[in-house]
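Hello Y.,

Per our agreement to keep a running log of every chain we model this quarter, I'm adding this entry. I've kept the format consistent with earlier entries: sequence first, then predicted structure.
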Amino acid sequence: MSNNDNTPGFLKDALKFGIHLGLERMEALDSALGHPEKELKVIHIAGTNGKGSVSSYLTHILAASGLKTGVYTSPFLERFSERMRIIDGREGLKRYLEDDSYGEIPADTLERLSEKVKAAAGEVTASGLEDPTEFELVTAICYLWFAEEKIDIAVLETGLGGRLDSTNVFDKPELTVITSIGMDHADRLGNSIAEISAEKAGIIKPGVPLVIADPDSMILDPRGQKDVRRVMEETAKAKNSPVIYVRPDKAEPVYSPSGTMEFSFENKKYETRLMGDHQAGNCSVAVKTAEILSGKFGSITAETIEEGVRATSWKCRAEVLNREPLTVLDGGHNVQGATSLGRVWGRMFGGAYKDSPVRLVIGVMKDKDVEGIIRSYRDCGINIKEAYTVKVDNPRTMLPAELSNIIKVVYNHKVDVIEEDDPLKAVASAYESSKKDNIPLLVTGSLYLLGQIRGYLKGLI
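Predicted structure for the entry above:
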């Protein structure tokens, strides 16, 4: 998290309660607040990878369609207030594209609603329940704000899993959406793809259509793909919910020298600034979701969908901050994410950087499959010449020396590794070196790290 962190104090205090999955506290909190969530029309999104990108595509499309659109995502990268945002139709979208802090919850509103939620949390604990978690409190603030602002539609990401996630309190969302699934948070969600899929499938609601990335396009082995499909179909059948599988057309995306990507979905071409075959998949899920929603919201048209897709940006997903030297930020914080980045690296800008040596700044959490992440970079052809291993400002960080050893072993000691606790020092040194020798700079790993670094690096460029 960045130095601009504007998290209200009582929410920071609530972090000590950790993550406790379950809906009892959230339901009690909603009740104490007069059920603001019941006033919202919601698209509910779960998945291991791609939730943020799909949420961003959908938000841009809905705003381009003239809808007052709320979006709730996590974690935040630079400012706590990023977690909830309202983009008010086309004019709001124009302002957001000029200033990526536009639409975030204002400081005075956040303070006022925090006090309201704090009082409600006191009622919850007085009734004998445990203290609400930080995520539950933030989610309650979001529901209150969106209800007060009388938005047309809300795009809500789950925090963790789905079935017991604090966002899973809607009986009748407009649609449910599930993106790509992988082995993440196995300690909490289950030790197999089938178990994790069952947790994600917990957002499926009776009679509500499910839009899901086709399991055959997920970065899983064939058995994992079959397990996802089986679990989703069994759950949907039990709830009488139609399932719409989505995957882009078979033709590979085309990467332009200018830094955009073109792909086709259902024989229609789309141009996006988010790069990677996985983004073609994420975008297709958002497009299909918007097409289905157009039956309820007549302002959503083929033209506004295309316009929203073209306008979409998403921080720290193969985000190009600079071209000379090429400077890219990417939160490839698990094996699937690292594989997706590896696949796009050699093709972005029309393949201009394929086989180029790369300078890396990386920090990761020790509870991730770090060896798998580094192996994915190697196997996808990311030719690391020099790496800075850093500490992330989080108790779960892997120490630079340990990360350094993994890189050396996986890359067979062909990488110069510099261990540096301070990520800002590391990125300043790495950027200075890349300015001199023009070797591309890739900053990757934990999203917490990228939140710490992004604003500082932008200041150097």
